[in-house]
Design goal:
With 256 residues, this protein is an alpha/beta fold. Helix 3 crosses helix 7. Helices cover 35% and strands 9% of the residues. The chain has a single domain, classed as HUPs (Rossmann fold), CATH 3.40.50.
Length: 256
């Protein structure tokens, strides 16, 4: 088992720390936030993209324009829909990019499925969180342990759990690495405008009323007028709908 990232303390330069705490970055547009981040941390910085939302694809495109060697990784939970695997292949071809695939630990998946069955996530919030822990959180922690900074496509208006998202912040839940959320203040409309204007590839399930695509058994299409997050873990209340990847200190720092 990889060492817990909470036990690792990253040495972020004092200059970078000053820039982060100074607040200047919060006022910058997304491309300039990314330019600063890549200049400061590459190759120790990578985008975490689910390939299941347009935001990650927008950030991937922006990072590629700034540096064709910019890095991206995806957590392959083993339960992703075919459309997501197809998009990963399209991105590899379109950008000539090595998409870094991160898998869960096979023994942990085997034990979980033996103990609780393959569809444990429908049984309770605890079982769903266990599945996310094994298939997403542990692999992410392992990946982040080798990075100084990571980039996400989080936006503040995506969910009640994301309203405090800063554009650049210290991620103490992951050993104090830097977390960059360049689209924090973007709207859904701005994201899709960028996609159209730059011909960014996106997940084809978006055209079938999936605003957000996660694992196949935990994602569904939404009806007109439904909240965009209604198609993820639809059997749970909105405030529990995180996989543990994006958890801040105010939420206990118990995951991501
Ligand atoms: S989203 Fe569903 S299938 Fe994927 S890791 Fe979480 S509980 Fe498991």
């Amino acid at each position: 088992m990889a060492q817990s990232p909470q036990m690792l303390e990253k040495s972020i330069s004092s200059k970078a720390l000053e820039e982060i705490s100074g607040g200047r970055l919060e006022a910058l547009p997304a491309a300039e936030v990314l330019e600063w981040a890549i200049k400061t941390f590459h190759p120790g910085i990578a985008l975490s993209a689910s390939f299941g939302g347009p935001e990650g694809m927008v950030v991937l495109d922006m990072m590629h324009r700034l540096n064709p060697h910019s890095r991206v990784f995806v957590l392959d939970t083993g339960r992703l829909p075919q459309a997501t695997y197809d998009l990963i292949d399209r991105v590899r071809d379109r950008y000539d990019k090595d998409v870094e695939i991160v898998f869960p630990e096979p023994p942990a998946v085997e034990k979980m499925v033996r103990d609780h069955g393959a569809n444990l996530f429908y049984e309770s919030i605890e079982r769903r969180q266990l599945c996310c822990q094994v298939r997403k959180v542990e692999p992410l922690n392992r990946k982040l342990a080798d990075l100084e900074a990571w980039v996400t496509g989080l936006r503040r208006d995506q969910a009640v759990t994301r309203t405090q998202t800063a554009k650049v912040e210290l991620d103490r839940a992951h050993g104090g690495i830097v977390k960059v959320n360049p689209l924090a203040d973007w709207t859904d409309e701005e994201v899709w405008t960028y996609v159209r204007e730059h011909g960014v590839p996106t997940n084809r399930l978006h055209t079938q009323h999936y605003p957000s695509v996660g694992c196949d058994p935990c994602s569904r299409a939404i009806k007109p007028g439904e909240d965009p997050r209604a198609g993820r873990w639809w059997w749970e209340r909105p405030e529990t709908k995180e996989c543990g990847i994006h958890v801040g200190e105010e939420e206990g720092g118990s995951g991501i």
